[in-house]
Amino acid sequence: MNNKIISTVLLILCAIIWGFAFVAQTSGMDHMGPFGFSAIRSIIGGLSMLAIHPLLNKINKDSDFSIDKAQTRRASLICGPILFFAMNLQQYSLLYTSTGKAGFITTLYIIIIPVMRGFMGVKISKKMIFCIIGSTIGLYLITVKENLSINIGDVMVFVSAVFYSVHTLLLADFSPRVDAIILNAYQFLICGFMSAIPMVIFEGINSNAVAQSIGSILYVGILSSAFAYLFQIIGLRNVDPTIASLILSLESIFAIIGGFFILNQTLTLRETLGCLIMLISTIAVQIPLDFFKKKVLKKS
Fold it and tell me: What is the pTM of this model?
């Protein structure tokens, strides 16, 4: 029972860290470009994961699955470039859209993933279709203005969510056979070095800018990339994956809270309604249909 409580707390902390990361990502670009921010935070994140790897080995010493080192390297080479596109599209989008909207649109990966699995042959339920329609309506209310124009930042963060969905499906496939933390470390390092190329070409290197953004960089690099992933891994051991997903979906709420209190960002009534519909849809898609039936049977 105590382990379950601890895991739940860790998952909530993970959601808080990821939610407020949108604020850090936005404020971090007050002094430097998106590619530079992504490059440095990714390299710091990768090195941080390598640093905590011995700790995870202690925690996993009784694990009964074998690690395929060659598969870990292959997974890193595949996932790293995908993470590069997902992360940089999201980072660049924050130049044009608010942290709250970015947080909610990013949450669409919970809907996008089942759709992708549907194309892979996994049947999509009626409930899933209903939630997809609901999320689409919510996204429309958030991104499409009265003159039917769509903010380029909203489009970019949505495409980023698609890349994150592909990335998640790949990780789900690789995870039973690889060292998770080493995979995360390598993919972040690959993403970081790939981001450094356009940083040098388009933005240049400015040590003063890095120094001025160091707080945001360290937050996103160490807390969001390293510790939050560790909290997620440990938390999933004692909490049902569906419940864990519901807890982690609070990320979007904390993105809104962070943008409101730290960056003084606000949403219109229309956008707020869209966010509410998206949140309901992303939560509903994770709740099994027989969940409420079991509750009714127990009461009767």
Answer: 0.80
List, for residues 128-151, the tens digit of each pLDDT value: 788 888 888 887 887 666 565 678
User: Does the structure show a pLDDT above 70 at 236?
Assistant: no
Query: Which residue type does 185 have?
Result: A
Looking at residue 219, its amino acid is Y
pLDDT of 198 reads 95
Burial group, residue 280, by CB count within 10 angstroms (0-12, 13-18, 19+): middle
Half-sphere exposure of 70 (CA within 13 A, CB side): 0
Minimal CA–CA distance to 225: which of 5, 37, 60?
37
Question: What residues does 150 pair with on adjacent strands?
Answer: 144
Structure tokens at 225: 């990339």
C-alpha pair distances (Å), 252 with each of 99, 109, 288: 9, 12, 22
> What is the distance between the alpha carbons of residues 247 and 163, in angstroms, rounded to a whole number?
22
> How far apart (Å, rounded) are the C-alpha atoms in residues 194 and 187?
10
Q: Which long-range contacts (CB under 8 A, 24 or more apart) does 113-116 make?
A: 113/165, 113/168, 113/169, 114/285, 116/165, 116/166, 116/169
Question: What token pair was written down for 186?
Answer: 């390598």
**Is pLDDT larger for residue 150 or for residue 221?**
221
Return the exposure string of 11-45: e unless at least 16 CB atoms fall within 10 Å of the residue's CB, then b: bbbbbbbbbbbbbbbbbbbebbbbbbbbbbbbbbb
Q: What is the Cα–Cα distance from 86 to 105, expressed in whole angstroms? A: 13
Position 192 confidence tier, pLDDT thresholds 50, 70, 90: very high
17-31, 51-65, 83-97: segment of lowest average pLDDT: 51-65
Task: Give the contacts of 252 (CB within 8 A, at least 6 positions apart).
Answer: 19, 103, 104, 106, 107, 275, 278, 279, 282
